[in-house]
Amino acid sequence: MTRALTEKRLVLATHNAGKAREVAALLAEHAIEVITAGSLGLPVPEETENTFVGNATIKALAAARASNTVSLADDSGFSVAALDGAPGVYTADWAEQPDGTRDYAAAMAKVERLARHSPDRKAWFSCALVLAWPDGHVESFLGESHGVWVWPARGEKGFGYDPMFVPDGETQSFAEMDPARKHAISHRAAAFRLLSEACLPRR
Ligand SMILES: O=P(O)(O)OP(=O)(O)OP(=O)(O)OC[C@H]1O[C@@H](n2cnc3c(O)ncnc32)[C@H](O)[C@@H]1O
Ligand SMILES: [Mg+2]
Fold it and tell me: How many domains does the chain have?
């Protein structure tokens, strides 16, 4: 049976500041407070699964067990049709530099270099949100946002691969639009809507 979320605070099991900002804003609409994984010094678990839900489950369960508090993890990524869905679950890995830092400009340039020869510009973002309780119970949700990849990348807002993605029905990239607009139509918002319908009390 689906388990309702009755707690008013939860641990957000992410080390990505851009995601944390967006998920915290979604939770704030339901008056749920966020404790960050960073502030608890939680370790970064290895993401060994090959699905978004699988990796979000690893992260959420690790945080819930370590903190003894309900935890929410987000595993997400960018997929390009001409690349058979790559980088997909390896989206963060494509940005990883030898020194451990991330270079998203280089990662976006790699996507463009590999995909430019195909007339198919379709692309999408996916977001798995997984809630985990300290007793091991989990609830998972998957949201997607479909559109096209564009080049050159454009816009300064958002994070990650936002500058090279224009959602269907929009003219601006995720990085050009007002954060509130991205917030209304994103893969993360779609997953959160499912979570809130299943686990949060009606407002
Ligand atoms: O695992 P955590 O600590 O949560 O943080 P992470 O950055 O490693 O997150 P993922 O493993 O889920 O990798 C997701 C990748 O997809 C990118 N990404 C996810 N959502 C995005 C969004 O809304 N806009 C742009 N890029 C996004 C993000 O920058 C990462 O490179
Ligand atoms: Mg990660």
Answer: 1
